[in-house]
Design a protein that fits this description.
about 350 residues; alpha/beta; about 50% helix; Four Helix Bundle (Hemerythrin (Met), subunit A); TIM Barrel; single chain; 8-stranded parallel barrel; 18 helices
Length: about 350
């Protein structure tokens, strides 16, 4: 990868949508890209064994319109990770992110994810192999610590190892991962957030591009982190559940670019993608399940969510159902506008 391409990725990483299992698939990313042209998008975590041993290359599929988009890999075998990174780079991913933050039982049983923060030497081997295997930029997503580790002690040494390996960008989920006693869901909410520690890490490692992740609910909070000295902000659940509310102003307020179309125009813009998906044998719900929150905070939000859910439950749901819903939202929006101007 050229220096200019790396710099473009670095700029995009100023704001990113976090990788989320079962959520940030290719349909979700296409939808998010219509709202924000500039944000960096991530795939769901793809495991190296699934690609290398299972031959599940279809997990790497994406639309060219999703760029800039990064592939997140999970694994603990340096050779497998190198092979998986090479496969991702061959298919056009400019960034390969190494998952060192996921706390799920399935991930732990495979000895990868957050549990690897206990094995920095193995992490170093994995990073070295991945960087040698491809030209894509290798990045890291981690926690501030795991279980009984003391974040103020472990995180600086961990980041020092990462920086010494040649890694330039890190996203830090500002919570510990408690692998014993908490579910994956609880690990996203229960351990306290320590944004101050992440900011201190940026001061200690000025050469690293550091993004903060965890608990950030809106663009106002994101801008506070950026003005506080961090290089980037990564938002997950809020961007998924309220995509337009979170992403609509990113391009104008973070990247100094144009405002996006309205939520209604985004809904209309998805019709071509939906038509192609149905023509290829897919079901409407496989795409529209990611769109429930499009109108969150706007007139018609509840109607949109309910009707979209109803339509998705129909096995033979088609574009006529979707077009009818768009017309219903137009009517609701028009009525609300008339009330406000009366």
């Amino acid at each position: 990868m050229s220096g200019s391409d790396r710099e473009k990725l670095r700029q995009s990483a100023c704001f990113s949508v976090a990788p989320m299992m079962a959520w940030t698939d290719t349909h979700c990313r296409y939808f998010h890209r219509l709202i924000s042209k500039k944000s960096l998008l991530y795939t769901e975590m793809v495991t190296a064994p699934a690609l290398v041993l299972g031959g599940a290359i279809h997990l790497l599929d994406f639309n060219i319109e999703e760029y800039p988009v990064a592939l997140q890999l999970g694994g603990s075998d340096p050779v497998q990770l190198a092979q998986a990174a090479a496969l991702g780079a061959e298919r056009g991913y400019p960034e390969i992110n190494f998952n060192l933050g996921c706390p799920s039982d399935r991930v732990q049983s495979g000895s990868f994810g957050a549990v690897l923060m206990k094995e920095p030497d193995l992490v170093r081997q994995c990073l070295d192999k991945m960087q040698s295997a491809c030209d894509a930029e290798i990045t890291v997503k981690c926690r501030i610590g795991v279980d009984d580790q003391i974040p103020e002690k472990i995180l600086p040494s961990f980041l020092e190892m990462i920086e010494d390996s040649g890694i330039k960008r890190v996203a830090i989920h500002a919570r510990k991962a408690l692998l014993q006693g908490l579910s994956p869901k609880e690990n996203r909410d229960v351990p306290p957030l320590d944004y101050l520690l992440v900011r201190e890490m940026k001061k200690a490692f000025p050469g690293l591009h550091i993004s903060v992740n965890g608990g950030i609910k809106n663009l106002t909070e994101a801008k506070q982190h950026l003005s506080g000295g961090l290089d980037g902000v990564m938002i997950g659940r809020a961007a998924y559940h309220t995509p337009y509310a979170v992403l609509a102003s990113v391009d104008s307020e973070i990247f100094d670019d144009e405002y996006p179309p309205s939520a209604l125009e985004i809904g209309a813009a998805m019709t071509h993608y939906l038509e192609k998906h149905l023509k290829d044998g897919g079901r409407l719900h496989q795409v529209t399940r990611h769109m429930f929150g499009l109108f969150a905070g706007q007139p018609g939000a509840r109607h949109w969510r309910r009707r979209l859910s109803d339509i998705g439950s129909l096995r033979d749901a088609g574009m006529a159902d979707y077009f009818a819903l768009l017309e219903e939202i137009k009517s609701i929006t028009r009525f609300q506008t008339e009330l406000e101007t009366a």
